[in-house]
């Protein structure tokens, strides 16, 4: 139930808030389609597995497909903007990965042989590490000229967050060592995002914006330690938190403390991709 609550927040709050941070007028169709798909997807989470839940999850998948169509229609950027664009494209495509897992899980089908519980966690992962973190990393890359830390750190974050997300996904199909490598790369990227956010929060236009951005940065510093400890334990057999504990700590922190606070904070700061 907790994972369903977090995914609902991702669908109904985080993704639409993130889409409002994209200033490109061409994203308007995806913005209009998303609420229909998000509501359908959220309802599907709370129904018993079966035809109705699968049908509603498919509506969500259609909205994610519109987002993918917008992603592939974006014009080619100059080379200096490639790190930012890599992060933005990762964010825009991530809901489609989540949708694939959701449709399979709601149908009771073990996609690629994965257990249904793992598919449910995949849905959550690609809303927050996939969409939210990558979008914020891309946003910071776009603002690099105005950030105290400059472009190098921003480009590093814009590249490592997508790379870490991809490695974690590949680890599902290959080996736990690959998943651990992905967790380490993703953690490095997320910590860089948190550091950049913290630096910006000190110059935020008002106290509430500074509080929201500062909270999102502080949460990343702690929550990604849990992610590494879990991946390390899975790869080596060392004691590590259970998936239920990870959902209650890492999951809640990243969904509410990072993603929601970051989306609202950057919107208040007037930042746009």
Automatic annotation (TrEMBL):
This is YndJ-like protein. Keywords: Membrane, Transmembrane, Transmembrane helix. It comes from Actinoplanes nipponensis. It comes from the Bacteria. InterPro entries: YndJ-like. The chain crosses the membrane at residues 54-72, 84-104, 116-140, 152-174, 180-198, 210-232, 244-266.
């Amino acid at each position: 139930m907790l994972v369903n609550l977090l995914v609902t927040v991702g669908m109904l709050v985080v993704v639409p808030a993130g889409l409002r941070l994209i200033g490109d007028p061409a994203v308007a169709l995806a913005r209009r389609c998303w609420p229909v798909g998000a509501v359908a997807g959220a309802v599907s989470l709370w129904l018993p597995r079966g035809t109705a839940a699968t049908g509603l999850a498919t509506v969500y998948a259609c909205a994610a497909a519109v987002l993918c169509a917008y992603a592939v229609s974006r014009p080619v950027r100059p080379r200096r903007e490639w790190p930012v664009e890599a992060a933005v494209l990762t964010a825009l495509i991530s809901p489609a990965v989540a949708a694939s897992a959701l449709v399979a899980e709601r149908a009771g089908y073990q996609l690629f042989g994965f257990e249904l519980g793992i598919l449910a966690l995949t849905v959550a992962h690609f809303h927050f590490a996939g969409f939210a973190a990558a979008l914020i990393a891309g946003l910071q890359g776009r603002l690099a000229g105005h950030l105290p830390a400059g472009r190098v750190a921003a480009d590093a974050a814009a590249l490592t967050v997508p790379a870490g997300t991809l490695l974690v996904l590949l680890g599902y199909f290959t080996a736990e060592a690959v998943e651990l490598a992905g967790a380490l790369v993703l953690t490095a990227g997320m910590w860089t995002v948190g550091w950049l956010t913290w630096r910006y929060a000190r110059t935020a236009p008002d106290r509430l914006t500074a509080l929201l951005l500062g909270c999102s940065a502080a949460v990343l510093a702690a929550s990604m330690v849990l992610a590494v400890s879990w991946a390390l334990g899975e790869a080596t057999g060392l004691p590590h938190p259970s998936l239920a504990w990870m959902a209650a700590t890492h999951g809640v922190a990243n969904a509410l403390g990072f993603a929601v606070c970051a989306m609202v904070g950057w919107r208040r700061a007037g930042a746009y991709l």
